[in-house]
Write a structure and sequence with these properties.
Elements: H1 29-35, E1 39-43, E2 51-54, H2 56-61, H3 66-69, H4 74-77, H5 89-103, E3 107-108, E4 112-113, E5 116-117, E6 126-127, E7 130-139, E8 145-154, H6 156-170, H7 172-176, H8 180-199, E9 204-208, H9 219-225, H10 229-232, H11 243-247, H12 250-261, E10 263-271, E11 277-288, E12 294-303, H13 305-327, E13 331-336, E14 342-345, H14 347-353, H15 357-360, H16 371-387, E15 391-400, E16 403-415, E17 421-430, H17 432-490, H18 497-526, E18 533-536, H19 538-552, E19 560-563, E20 569-572, H20 573-590, E21 598-606, E22 609-616, H21 648-658, E23 662-667, E24 673-680
Parallel strand pairs: 19-21
Antiparallel strand pairs: 1-2, 1-8, 3-7, 4-7, 5-6, 7-8, 9-12, 10-11, 11-12, 13-14, 13-17, 15-16, 16-17, 18-20, 21-22, 22-24, 23-24
Helix pairs in contact: 17-18, 18-21, 19-20, 20-21
Length: 686
């Protein structure tokens, strides 16, 4: 092994006498870093982990030169020993560095065997070395990893000394019988080992006698376990165990296993002096003298609490993700990127496919689906892996144990740190029922379109009928009215009383026929009239309707009409006037035979609707005939009782329906009636 040359201290530079106005120069941080007495590398977080800086001690210890390694990839400079088939230094170090980049936290590695190349000037070849590495991130102001600080301790000597420990003890008797010079050398070697173990702070290293009593103590043990040497020497090792482990006899069991096998390594919770616990990696080694007699044990303990907590957090996260995965109502599956075999499958996927996951894991689509479907699925998978991005498949048909189902599937690759696809993740939603509903909706739309066409045809026929009514019926009606008028004016004196009554009946029925034609035309035009929606003051509309009714009746209306404050709304004001005119005139008409007729107009708000009503104290009607109330030409009273054509309420219903509202009525015979109209308040926000 090449000896490490001591680094000569740099000569101090004599500074000139300081003046008050002198500005201190900034430290040369590059030189400071290179001169630190520890082994450091500064790496870039790129694909090759490029070396950007190296301390003098690191270069000297690794038998390299700064100008030959800076700017090169870490593993180009420090590859694995090709002669060591079990070498894993590169893979372990790369994994640790990737964890630092991913987690943005320091990563302490277990001691590593990582051989280094010797320069050709020293014979070339490889030299076995052992290291204790720690990799830490240096973050920029945005929290991204800017550099990785790779710090190592060369523990080769400690490991070799530990490995040779038993052999050295075996030769103790022989060395004692040797010359004083050899005895002195042995003492110096033992002293060196003692100083080495005492100086190590990252490991608790101490000796135990055959009865499990502690007989030595180093600084690392003091730091990790919290006891000073004078507090712990002479105490049993069971003092570090938890009460449960002591009751189960673990301390004795571990020493017995070390005695039986020569060495025993175990991990578990241990207790410090302050009663706090830590996760320890403990190695017990049996020690023998030259005669082969068992003299005790060595114990090396390392504090792995940070790693243990990290592992537990990862396990908790995995358990949480597994729980989420299992409870997602859609099928979730994961395939390996190389062979597209299933490696994960959730409960919803099992239920959808109708196959247990134990029969799915390790197999691909060709093991379960027809070749045509398997070809389709595989092609999509390869496209996802090639594109490296999400692929959305809105519809695809799949054969399952429960029959054919339609799926909406999204697939995305899962890559490693270098962007190489490792897995393919898929999420599939069963849209079979939705597809059936969509088809039903399409069928309903087709039927609706057909109905609309029929409705349009009926409207055209109604327009034709209205045209016929307005032109073809009015002409003979005018003739009947004209000739009847002539007869009554020119021949009334020569007509008998019965004849005059009949002529009067003809005139009245002609007038009624004319009114029916006018009402029918108004009803027909109502369906085609374009609405002008605006803010409407319903109280003003109601008053205008009452004034119009009074004017048409020569201001001889007997009923008392009360119009309360009415809620405003958005509607067609002229159509609303028509509504109030019909409802109020009906109320006046059907309450006219009361001794004190009254009509009330009011409103209220309920369940998102403005509801208006017109109430009277007239003859009312029997609710069993309610279904005839809003039909064209449908009347609940004879014309002899109350004049009318039976179109008014039909007109009201059509107007309110066009506004998206509804109409209804409540009544009792001889107790009056109340007619309601309801308009959605959402119209007021449109």
């Amino acid at each position: 092994m090449s000896k490490i040359k001591a680094i000569k201290p740099k000569k101090a530079i004599k500074k000139p006498a300081r003046k008050k106005s002198t500005i201190l120069e900034s430290p040369d941080f590059q030189s400071l870093f290179e001169s630190v007495p520890d082994l450091y590398l500064i790496l870039l977080p790129d694909k090759n982990f490029t070396i950007t800086a190296v301390s003098d001690v690191y270069a000297a210890t690794t038998l390299t030169k700064r100008d030959e390694i800076v700017g090169k990839g870490l593993f180009e400079v420090f590859p694995d020993n090709p002669n060591d088939l079990d070498a894993d230094g590169v893979s372990n170090l790369r994994a640790s560095l990737n964890r630092v980049i991913k987690l943005k936290k320091a990563d302490a590695m277990a001691p590593q065997k990582y051989d280094i190349r010797k320069p050709e000037s020293e014979g070339g070849g490889w030299e076995a070395r052992y290291w204790d590495p720690l990799n830490s991130p240096l973050l920029d102001k945005n929290g991204n990893v800017k550099y990785i600080i790779h710090r190592v301790k060369d523990i080769t000597e400690m490991i070799r000394l530990a490995e040779r420990e038993s052999e050295q003890l075996k030769y103790t008797k022989a060395l004692e019988a040797s010359e004083r010079e050899n005895i002195q050398k042995l003492k110096l070697s033992e002293e060196r080992f003692r100083h080495l173990t005492q100086s190590i702070k990252d490991y608790a290293i101490f000796m135990i006698d055959v009865n499990g009593i502690i007989i030595s103590w180093n600084k690392g043990a003091e730091r990790i376990k919290g006891y000073q040497a004078n507090e712990i020497i002479g105490k049993p090792t069971s003092i570090f165990y938890l009460e449960k482990d002591r009751n189960e006899g673990k301390p004795k069991e571990h020493l017995e296993l070390a005695l039986k096998n020569g060495r025993h390594e175990v991990e578990g919770w241990r207790m410090r002096k302050d009663r706090s616990i830590f996760w320890a990696d403990v190695v017990y080694t049996s020690i023998y003298d030259d005669a082969g007699n068992h003299t005790g044990f060595s114990e090396i303990t390392r504090d792995l609490t940070f790693q243990k907590r990290a592992e537990e957090e990862i396990m908790r996260s995995n358990d949480f993700l597994n729980s989420v995965l299992e409870n997602i109502p859609n099928m979730v599956f994961v395939k390996d990127a190389k062979y597209l075999r299933f490696v994960r499958f959730n409960k919803a996927g099992e239920q959808l496919i109708g196959t247990s996951r134990k029969h799915l894991i390790g197999k691909n689509d060709y093991d379960f689906f027809p070749k045509e479907q398997a070809d389709h699925f595989t092609a999509k998978d390869r496209l996802v892996l090639e594109m490296g991005s999400l692929v959305d498949i809105p519809e695809e048909l799949i054969d399952t144990q429960n029959g054919q189902r339609w799926l909406h599937t999204r697939k995305i690759p899962i890559n490693d740190a270098n962007g190489t696809p490792l897995y393919l993740l898929g999420v599939s939603e069963d849209i079979t029922e939705r597809r059936i509903v969509d088809e039903q909706i399409r069928q309903l739309n087709r039927e609706l379109s057909q109905s609309i066409m029929q409705h349009e045809l009926a409207n055209k026929e109604l327009e034709s009928f209205s045209y016929s009514v307005s032109h073809d019926l009015r002409a003979p009606l005018r003739a009947i009215r004209g000739y009847t008028k002539i007869l009554m004016e020119d021949y009334a004196a020569s007509l008998e009383a019965d004849a005059q009554n009949m002529m009067n009946a003809v005139t009245e029925n002609a007038e009624r026929m004319s009114q029916l034609i006018d009402d029918l035309l108004a009803f027909s035009r109502m369906g085609k009239k374009e609405m002008n929606i605006c803010d409407v003051n319903m109280k003003i509309i109601a008053h205008e309707a009452v004034n119009g009714i009074k004017a048409a009746n020569g201001n001889s209306i007997k009923a008392k009409i009360t119009i309360h404050e009415l809620l405003p709304t958005k509607a067609d004001s002229s159509l609303m006037g028509n509504v109030f005119t019909n409802l109020i005139s009906n109320a006046i008409k059907y309450s006219s035979k009361s001794s004190a007729p009254e009509v009330e107009v009011n409103s209220f708000h309920k369940d998102g609707e403005n509801i208006y009503y017109v109430k009277d104290n007239g003859v009312g009607f029997d609710m069993k005939y309610y279904d005839k109330l809003y039909g064209v030409f449908q009347r609940l009273h004879s014309n002899a009782e109350f004049e009318g054509t039976g179109v008014g309420l039909a007109l009201v219903k059509r107007i309110i329906t066009r506004h998206g509202g509804r109409v209804w009525a409540e009544a009792e015979p001889d107790k009056g009636a109340t007619f309601y109209i309801a308009l959605h308040t959402s119209n007021n926000n449109s």
